[in-house]
Amino acid sequence: MNNFKEQYLQGIIDIKSLDDFVDMWHKNSNGMTLQEFLGLDDIEYTAFAHSENELKRELDKSKKKVASFFKSFS
Question: Which residues constitute the domain of residue 31?
Fold first, then answer.
């Protein structure tokens, strides 16, 4: 299973799925930190600590970078 960030960036899930991932981590973290489990970098994790909306803004920046990267090849 891909982590939260990977699935979000691929458009498989939306930000509302974050709570489900946190619940999954509480049930079975396998020794991973929440940051590792969600697949967030330090900036994203700090945003997550502030609010879901801040995390969404950070992740959406990544989405735009990826989209423009691939657009440059078409």
Answer: 4-71
Q: What is the pLDDT of residues 10-26, one digit of tens each?
A: 999 999 999 999 999 99
The count of domains in the chain is 1
Contact 39, 55 (CB under 8 A): no
Crossing angle for the helix pair 52-71 and 42-50, to the nearest 10 degrees = 140
**CB 22: neighbour CB atoms within 10 A?**
15
CA dist 5 to 16, 50, 55, 61, 62, Å? Answer: 12, 17, 10, 12, 10
Q: What mean pLDDT, rounded, does the chain reach?
A: 90
Confidence category of residue 68, pLDDT binned at 50, 70, 90:
low
